[in-house]
Amino acid sequence: MKRFAALVLAAVLGSVITIATTRWWNPASEGVKIQHINSVPTAQVGYRLNENGEAVALDFTGTAEKVTKAVVNIRSTSEGPAVSRNPNQDADPFQFFFGPNQRQRGPVQSSGSGVIINKDGYIVTNNHVVQNADVVDVTLTDNRTFKAEVIGTDPDTDLALIKINQKDLPFLSFVNSDQCKVGQWVLAVGNPFNLNSTVTAGIISAKGRSIGIINRENSSGEQGNVTTAIESFIQTDAAINPGNSGGALVDLDGGLVGINTAIASPTGAYSGYGFAIPANIVSKITEDLLAYGTVQRGWLGVQVRSVDSELSKEKGLSVSDGAYISEFAEKSSAKEAGLMAGDVVVKLDETPIKSSTALIEFIGQKRPGDKVKVLVNRDGKELTFTVTLKTRDGKVGTIAREEPNSVSSLGLQIEDADPKMLKKLDIPTGVYVKSVGNGRIARYTDMRDGFIITRVDDKAVKTAKEVNDILKSKKPGDLVTFSGVYEDFPREYIYAIRI
């Protein structure tokens, strides 16, 4: 009996040892266990000081959620030529029958971004986003799309104000961009490459940048070859790409620091440099467009250069920075106040002026009739003058909005035809098209420079005044036809377009 009990005990111990050994050598037989812990993604990458000087977590998530709701996608559509052909370079025999400069036509679309600036549907964007657009569509972050009305534009700052018919929309408030500092965190929000609601982070890399991209062709004979553009960009390393134009540059509280406008890149895509129009300029332009329908811009009437070591040495200046006055416009409020060529502007009111860009930005926020205290350095002495800003025409007062008319919308530049040319072509009368310009004629017809208008709506015309009088009598939506010939294609062509 004892021997049997011993055998049973030995068998049990052997089984236990075998099972334990098997499990020790093959732990996977129990199955793979994956451990889970309750956690959330880390959004805090550092700390910053708030307006009270308190250290708070650096968190982009709340700002991004707030700001993206107020940034929209804008799609502009215009009817325009897709392909053009010069009749003088082609030998196509069909060309004679179908006329010069035949073009394949179709809608041209471009896209950008915009920022809602109040609950009633007013949106700020870039002028180049909506320029020459026939239809402007705005898509909100909830994917609703609305037609927009262009309230006003300002090519000199590349800004535009549009409106959709909606209420109680989320919007962004302006901050004082003059108080923004280099090194400050900012977020860029927009729709690059049609990727809606994209947020990128960076810092303000520099202020007061001028890169010569706004309104390059616009210059004033009154001020020589000086561009009328106002450039004093905020530079940022937050990623900005095509499609970001018109989007928001915001601080970490969600305040609008600027409107993203351009990039500096050898490839056309982001390479480290983005530029935004400062909020103070944006605010002034939008207020003018809302109140007056056009921008109220005051002028000192000076041409200035930034003072650097080279200029200081060349002119024998006693200062190393400021805005050097090189010449005056014909009707200059600064000259009337007593300023002279060679003066260096070092302060406007209480704002130090370190460069020509700083002067342009400061004056760009003023209106005709505003008085500005100008501190200049003249031959080592500081002098103060009070200048009353005027319009470019030398006037003080509100600038009236130029209402578009039939003639200006078409873009035609016409003059009386040379009688010798008419005789050569054997036509009794005609009006010469000096330029088709950039208006509706150029966009919707094949008319080219040099066209000789013989009839408008089947009425013979002799002078440019007659053509203009007929066009001025037209109402929006009216159809107008131009009949005439080309000197190098002496057969009749007819162009029809709605005003």
Keywords:
six-stranded antiparallel β-barrel; Thrombin, subunit H; alpha+beta; 499 residues; 27 strands; 4 domains; seven-stranded antiparallel beta sheet; Pdz3 Domain; 20% helix; 12 helices
Question: Care to give the gist of this entry?
Answer:
By secondary structure, the protein is an alpha+beta fold. Helices cover 20% and strands 33% of the residues.
CATH class of the largest domain: Mainly Beta
| The CATH homologous superfamily of the largest domain | Trypsin-like serine proteases
Query: Could you tell me the strand content as a percent range?
Result: 25-35%
Q: What's the alpha carbon Rg, rounded to whole Å?
A: 34 Å
Strand order across the largest sheet: 7-6-3-4-5-9-8
Number of strands: 27
* Overall spatial form: globular
Largest sheet: 7 strands, antiparallel
Model regions low in confidence, pLDDT < 50 over at least 5 residues: 39-43, 81-104, 217-226
Structural class: alpha+beta
Q: Work out the helicity level.
A: 10-25%
Number of helices: 12
Which CATH-level-2 architecture of the largest domain? Beta Barrel
Could you say how many structural domains there are in total? 4
What average pLDDT do the residues reach?
Answer: 82
Tell me the span between the first and last alpha carbons: 121 Å
CATH T-level fold name of the largest domain: Thrombin, subunit H
